[in-house]
Amino acid sequence: MTPTSSPPLADLAVIRHFIDGRYVESPRPLFDNRDPATGKVVAQVHEADAAIVAHAVDAARRALQGPWATLSGQARAKVLRRLADGIRDRFDEFVAAEIRDTGKPASLASHLDIPRGAANFEVFADQIAASATEAFRSDTPDGRGALNYGLRTPRGVIAVICPWNLPLLLMTWKVAPALAFGNTVVVKPSEETPSTTTLLGEVMRDAGVPDGVFNVVHGFGPDSAGQYLTEHPDVDAITFTGETRTGTAIMQAAAVGVRPVSFELGGKNAGIVFADCDLDAAVAGIARSAFLNSGQVCLGTERVYVERPVFEAFVSRLKTAAEALVPGDPWAESTSFGPLISSRHRDKVLGYYARALDDGATVVTGGGVPQLPDALAGGYWVQPTIWTGLPEDSAVIREEIFGPCCHVAPFDREDEAIARANASPYGLATTIWTGDLTRAHRVAAAIEVGVAWVNCWFLRDLRTAFGGARQSGIGREGGVHGLEFYTELRNVCIKL
Ligand code: NAD
Questions:
Q1: Which of 407, 390, 233 is nearest to 303 (CA)?
Q2: Taking Cα atoms as reference points, which of 386, 443, 437, 387 lies closest to residue 413?
Q3: What is the three-class DSSP state of 158?
Q4: Probe ligand 1: pick from 161, 168, 171, max atoms within 8 Å of CB?
Q5: Which atom of ligand 1 is nearest to the CA of 189?
Q6: Domain spanning 269-461: which superfamily?
Q7: Which atom of ligand 1 is nearest to 166's Cα?
Q8: Atom 39 of ligand 1: nearest residue by CA position
Q9: How big is the CA angle at 236 (ends 231 and 237), to the nearest 5 degrees?
Q10: Which of the chain's termini has less CB crowding within 10 Å, N or C?
Q11: Where are the domains of the chain?
């Protein structure tokens, strides 16, 4: 069900850090949190200095010695299920907090962000029960043999650094496996979206998570919470979702102390539409992949290659789909399209809209800022935009824009489509549309990405591996794959 009005969020008017089971303040001046739909300040946020970050890391380290460390996997699984229930019990509050931070439509927050935030805890509760290690019986010269077996132990204190596009969903995607496997965490949500992570502190407390296991510090990246956290020597591992450039800076910080990283980074994903596909399904799928969450999805499709016989029909139908999107008040039932996250991000996206014109694009639809009622005029809105006719070396084709836009180009041969899709430093995801099963397997194997979807997009089974190839990430999370990052694997060898 989609809620149609916001419950009061008075407790989130001033947003504090959550450390060692309590909400705490810090001496730095507070910073503004704005509603992207209106541009109005809706909350003030405490910014962590180095001392607050050290306090959070210390709490997380101490909690590793407390009851959390000795809980059985089954008992931790029970706590994780209580966390999922706790989010669902306060569903409307979480939806409202996410909408206030992002401006996204209530239909999206209530059908994607918050349900997935809860589901992440359940999936990793199941995972604890299912995880196993290897065992080998070895020969020895005396004939008695030896038994080797794997023993998994928590990594320790995990720093979790999050982006703003799917705040609760992406944060819990990392916090849930970290806690499931016995670690403690210090989370730094994006400065743009501090609210749902803060609310989760209350849910943790109510679910009986011991103090210090889940900690939250607010602030920015450089010279702020992000940098202090990744540079803190008592952090054992860093998991990060965000831009590739930020990943480079975090990797440099992690190099000191040789600490492991798990990175989910940027993308410039290609969709490929073959003439033998179900064209209605392909148009709907590509429209969703280009415009969902106003294009602010790492898996989104900004480059579309369409086989020439259906190119004109595809572009015309995609235009109709883009023009059917309705921007507006996030709480209105009719709204299907939200603003961008910030004025800075809007300027960046509009910069690419201008660049497309300079590079000779034909604007099929959009390309500017929509007309909206006065109440929303201060928000960070742009139009859903489709281009054709750009050369492949245009920055619009090569760089991640992270806005509601895509370029559509025709192709003639399968190998040409594959080569153009692969001509990118990124390798996060692709979406392939075809009625030919053999071709589906062939193309999915040939595109160098972490996730290949065929005749669908963003269809996730949370037990499967998730991550990016090339500059789109390091490592895989999801299901058992997260075990490699969230645990240490020790081999025990017993002489028999
Ligand atoms: P960002 O890299 O600007 O910021 C992400 C987080 O890193 C924020 O919390 C920020 O404060 C922090 N940060 C920034 N500089 C830092 C530093 N030097 N040290 C430590 N922390 C620092 O990314 P964003 O703009 O919030 O998110 C959009 C980006 O995230 C896009 O590139 C998108 O593709 C990517 N993304 C990837 C995935 C994925 O699964 N691969 C998912 C969502 C978003």
A1: 407
A2: 443
A3: strand
A4: 161
A5: 9
A6: Aldehyde Dehydrogenase; Chain A, domain 2 (3.40.309.10)
A7: 43
A8: 264
A9: 85
A10: N
A11: 9-265+472-495, 269-461
- Residue labelled with tokens 């939200």: 338
Cα–Cα–Cα angle for 219, 118, 57, nearest 5°?
A: 35
For residue 353, the one-letter residue type is Y
Q: What distance in angstroms lies between residue 460's CA and the mean position of ligand 1's atoms?
A: 21
Q: Which token pair is 184?
A: 């403690």
Residues lining ligand 1, CB < 6 A? 161-165, 170, 188, 190-191, 220-222, 226-227, 230, 241-243, 246, 249-250, 264-267, 298, 400, 402, 428, 468, 472-473
Note whether 226 and 243 are within 8 A (CB): no
Reduced to 3 states (helix: H, G, I; strand: E, B; else coil), residue 414 is helix
Q: How many residues does the chain have?
A: 496
In tens, the pLDDT along 108-117 reads 999 999 999 9
Residue 343 corresponds to which tokens in the numbers above? 């004025």
Four-residue CA torsion sign, 96, 99, 104, 108: negative
Per DSSP, what are the bridge partners of residue 45? 15, 31
- pTM of structure: 0.97
3 alpha carbon – ligand 1 mean position (Å): 29
At the second CATH level, the architecture of 9-265+472-495 is 3-Layer(aba) Sandwich (3.40)
Q: Residue 221 phi/psi, 5° resolution?
A: -90, -90
User: pLDDT tens digit string along 6-29?
Assistant: 766 768 899 999 999 999 999 999
Query: 223: which residues sit within 8 A by CB, 6+ positions away?
Result: none
Name the residues annotated as catalytic.
264, 298
Cα-Cα-Cα-Cα torsion 172, 173, 176, 180, nearest 10 degrees, comes to: -170
- The closest-lying atom of ligand 1 relative to the alpha carbon of residue 190 is 9
State the pairing for strand pair 184-188/301-307. unpaired
Take residue 217 and report the two structure tokens written for it: 């510090």
Which residues, in sequence order, are CB contacts of 86 under 8 Å at separation 6+? 203, 204, 206, 207
User: Which residue, judged by its Cα, is nearest atom 42 of ligand 1?
Assistant: 298
Nearest CA to ligand 1 atom 23: 242
Residue 55, token pair as written in the block: 């306090």
Residue 83 to residue 87: CA distance in whole angstroms: 6
Strand, coil or helix: 321: helix
Which ligand 1 atom is at minimum distance from the Cα of 219? 11
* Burial annotation 216-232 (CB, 10 A radius, 16+ → b, else e): bbbbbbeebbbbbbbbb
Type of residue found at 472 = S
Whether the CB-CB separation of 21 and 211 falls below 8 Å is answered with yes
